[in-house]
Amino acid sequence: MQLVFPAPAPVTLPVAGGGAFPVRRIYCVGRNYAEHAQEMGHSGREAPFFFMKPADALVAVAEGETGQIDYPSLTSNLHHEIELVVAIGRGGSDIPASEAVEHIWGYAVGLDMTRRDLQNEMKKQGRSWEIGKAFEQSAPIGPVVPRARCGTLERGAITLAVNGQPRQKGDLSDLIWSIPETIEQLSRAWRLEPGDLIFTGTPAGVGAVVRGDVMEGAVAGLGTLRVAIRS
Question: Any idea what DSSP says for residue 163?
């Protein structure tokens, strides 16, 4: 069948050590660190909930480089959210938490950029968050590190600084819903497939950034993601 216009190029991410990881879907977990949930006005271990970003929202940043993103339209309150990203290499539905690790191909450092003013307005109206979360260039991400290389990540520092000033600090062990539990819950609602990414939540300290700011996020064992907002 002849295409009526050229198909977009597939979305891929560089892999640490060589190769490319083809991306299918991006799932995100909301409010998955207790202190961040509290700063957003919530508390307790509520049932996990999810939202999505389009695959082409990713901005791949090579190791040692500084990625560039534009300040998005329609907002005056753009927030950073540093996250551990899980890359799925084996699909499945109703995956038990006890088997979830075997479905993980690797990990990456990611940023869930958020138009907070638009998100808050959608919350007030009881509407979906896509306009606040799923815009272009809303998901800068570093190289995917194979689990075979870095091991299974269960604890370790996750941090973000803006212009050299610390903003966010937490530990992967502080996740309300662990990565295996998240995969279990997520795979009940959607069938996971190779190429899926899961943004696992952000620690406390989210805040606004402006044109010219440089964000440096890190997860222990995965290196640093450096992203600048174009002036």
Answer: T
